[in-house]
Specification:
The protein is mostly helical. The chain is about 80% helix and about 0% strand.
Length: about 250
């Protein structure tokens, strides 16, 4: 199978856990503290994947200056886009409670939340696809990190959508669309960058890593702290340890 199709498939698989999380939230009642704990664990897994896979690989292949610039650019781009969307009702898009804006609270918030979810997912899929360019197959730690973190994201955000009166058609339409977009992002990332220089791939990887790091800090950790409180740090560390062990297994 061509590498670009593999990238699309793995992006779809990782994004598919968003739909699984949405289905759990729609049909089952999951205590908020459990969702917060899983979100903290997923954050730790992503932190480890960023540190020991994405950023480390970017620095080794592209050099420190390019990696630093890429990280800063990715973080700045995410903050700019997230600020724009937050002002339109997507600020608490990962909340499973009443904090998430409803259409009655703010017109257009449904669109903003959907676009925000897309903003959160695309960088992950791009780096997942780029992990295939080295010829060693998909990066298992990165794949595990994205899949694990997507599950509580879909669960928590969907619970908030349901609580605020959004329909099943809207909820599942959002997450299925994001899953498909994740697959396309991975596919297109490989198509565009296949044959590119190591330094170019390193910069793109660093930009995506900076966006992911900022996303975790700005949207996942606050929601975890809101419910898991003093346990958040410990659970996040356990996620970090789990992903680190995967890289060394």
């Amino acid at each position: 199978m061509p590498i670009y199709l593999q990238a699309g498939l793995w992006g779809l698989v990782a994004g598919g856990t968003l739909v699984v999380g949405a289905a759990i939230a729609w049909f089952l009642h999951v205590p908020r503290v459990v969702v917060a704990a899983v979100m903290a664990f997923g954050s730790g897994v992503l932190f480890s994947a960023l540190a020991f896979d994405l950023v480390d690989e970017a620095e080794r292949s592209g050099g420190l200056p390019a990696t630093v610039v890429g990280l800063a650019a990715g973080a700045a781009a995410y903050v700019g886009a997230n600020t724009f969307l937050s002002r339109r009702g997507a600020a608490r898009r990962k909340s499973m409670g009443d904090e998430q804006a409803s259409e009655q609270d703010q017109a257009g918030s449904g669109t903003a939340i959907a676009v925000g979810a897309l903003l959160d997912g695309v960088p992950e899929s791009i780096v997942l696809g780029l992990s295939l360019l080295g010829g060693g197959g998909v990066g298992v730690p990165v794949l595990a990190a994205i899949a694990i973190s997507n599950l509580p994201e879909g669960l928590s955000s969907s619970a908030g959508m349901k609580r605020n009166g959004r329909s099943a058609r809207y909820v599942f339409g959002v997450w299925v669309s994001i899953a498909v977009a994740s697959g396309l992002a991975g596919l297109l990332g490989v198509l565009v960058l296949d044959g590119a220089s190591d330094s170019t791939v390193a910069v793109v990887t660093a930009v995506a890593a900076g966006a992911i790091l900022t996303m975790v800090t700005d949207t996942m950790i606050p929601e975890a702290v809101d419910r898991a409180h003093l346990w958040t740090g410990l659970i996040t560390t356990l996620g970090f340890i789990t992903a680190f062990a995967l890289t060394r297994a």
